[in-house]
Design goal:
Number of domains: 1
Shape: globular
Order of helices and strands: EEEHHEHEHHEHHEHEHHEEH
Number of helices: 11
CATH superfamily: tm_1862 like domain
CATH class: Alpha Beta
CATH architecture: Alpha-Beta Horseshoe
Strand order of the largest sheet: 1-4-5-6-7-8-9-10
CATH topology: pyruvate-formate lyase- activating enzyme
Distance between the termini: 29 Å
Largest sheet: 8 strands, mixed
Low-confidence stretches: none
Length: 310
Amino acid sequence: MSFARPEIIRPPSEASSYFLPLTSGCSNASCGFCNFFGSPLRIRPLPEIKQEIDALALYVGHGVRLSNVAPIVYVIAHSWDGKRIFLQDGDALAYPFGWLVEVLEHLNRRFPELERIASYATPQDILRRAPEELKRLKDMKLNILYMGVESGDDEVLKYINKGVESRQMVEAGQRIKKAGMLSSLTVILGLGGVQRSFPHAQSTAKILSQADPDFAGALTLTLVPGSPLYDQSQKGAFKLISPLQSLRELQTIVRETSFSNCFFSSMHASNYFSVRGRLPRDKARLLAELEMVISRDDPGLLRPEFLRGL
C-alpha cells in the first residue's frame, strides 16, 4: 500500500513550520480517547522523503515547481518561515533510527540555516531510544519533542489504555531534557471523568513537577466518535465533568505544580478558559484569573461549545 500523506495535526507553536511526513497514524494506536485510535503506523519510504526535501529546496531557492511533486508541498512552502521543520505524524520518532538520521542529515544539507526541527513522540518512542541516540538527534537540530502525558493517575492511564505508567512518563520527560532537547508536555483536563477528577488533577501536577518540562499545556477532553471512551460515555459508564469542574482541575494543576522554569498555557481551542504564563513566576496571577472565573460561575465567561475543537 502506498503511503498516504496524513492530515496536518500540529502544536500551536509550529504554525509557521514546514510539515514533513515521516509516518502516518501512531505506533500506540490504542489510547481510548484519541482520534488516532485504531490508526496503524505507516512508514514513509526514505527515498520519497528525500525527494520532497529536494523539491522543497529547489522551490525555495529558485522558485521551481516540479510536476511530479504533490501540490500540498508548495502550499505549505508558501507560508513556511524557512526556519523550522515539524516531522509528522503522531509520533515521527518511531521512524527507524538509521533512516531518521538520514532525513535529518539531508534536511541540514539542503537547509543549513534551519533553526530547529520538532516532532511528536510517545513515551514509548522516547524510552526505546538510548540517551546517546537522542543526543545524536539533538545535534542534528531535532531540538524539541512534544509528548502527550494525558494524566499522572495510573488508574486513568490504565483505563484509557495509554500503555505506560506515570513513572515511565516522568522517565521519558527527564530523558528528553538530559539529551539537551526542549520538552513540551500536554495533559488533558477531564480525562478522569467525574469519578477521578481530583486524583487525576493532583497526580498530573505531581508528575509534571517531576518531569519539569520547558513547556506544558492543558487541553480539555473532547470525545471522538468511534473511540472507546466515546462509547463508554454513550453507555453512561464514563461521565464527563462540567466546564466548571475542568477549571477546578486546571486550578489544581497550576497550584500544585513545582517547576524550575516552565511556560504553561491552556490556550488550546478545546479549553473553556485560557491562561498562560511562566511558572513559578506567574503562578499567583494565573490562580487569581482562574479563581475569578470559578467564583463567578458565569457561562458567559467561558468559550461556548460550538467554538471548542480538537
